Amino acid sequence: MSSYGKVAEISLADNITYEYILHTLSNGYEELLYRIYLGEEPKPGVKYFSRFSKEKTPSLSFYYKNGELKFKDFSSGHSGRLVDFIMAMYNITYVEALYRLYQDVTNKRIEVPTRKKLPTQDKEFCKIQVVVDEWNDNYYAYWKERLIKQSTLEFFEVAPCKEVWVKDYVYYRNTYDYIAYRYLVNGLYKIYAPLAPDKKKKFISNTDSNKCIQGFKQLTGKSKVLMITSSMKDVITLYELGIDSIAPTSENSLLPEGCIEYLVNKFQYKKVVILYDNDDPGLRAAQEHSIKYGVPYISLTDKQYKDPSDLVHAYQSLQPLRDDLLLLLKQV
Q: Rounded mean pLDDT of 59-77?
């Protein structure tokens, strides 16, 4: 039995898990922990010499899958997470590798940055903390394809995320193989990752339907129509057409009582119309909310497009959306 085998029972008794070491002791900085065993932080796309076998051509590579840093060593066949890397490197068991990692972290063989506490508005809604990044071409590409100007994104306080923490765990980093954006609504956050491979990672939010109305802050009162839409993305798309719109936190949420009357009185809108997603859940919600609010609803004429942004993206033009909405609005 190796020296680490003797502590296996202690490790299990103390409930030392890989997730505990990674998220609690190391603040989620998995890349930094690799310095102990690899000698440097791994970079996806870069080939390294195997730590498990002799080879003339580097075959050890790293990549992110569903937000987790993984490795694959083609010369030896080893692959997996950091704990698997340690098991293969020292030829030890899972529990022994876990304890070795625990010892290396607690003995501070590497300096792990302390997560910066970010200000939040209300303790009840502090579960999400975000570090935003500066806009660049890579971040902007998704929106550019949908004809949304960067100045519009900044006006709506949309920002690319560098890091997102949920309940003190790393939820997202900009080293992952997709991009996440922060929506800021009344001091609270909605994280939108439109191209996340895991659909569960597409949205996360701590917004409250009683306090947060997407687009409320950016209303101009310059349009004759107020549209109630499904999402911030719809609100932003309609803004590019010069149409004021707002969105509840989701299609299943209602706007606060008296909200529509307040906005009509303030901005003198001539019409208030619901435009939700062009699918079964969206149409059902539109029908129900139309009755609740006492306002009509419309849906895009071309049923193959789920929302205004999809239509704009397909045609690479705002004009088809403008023409369709003008026609639909004349009918209500």
A: 84
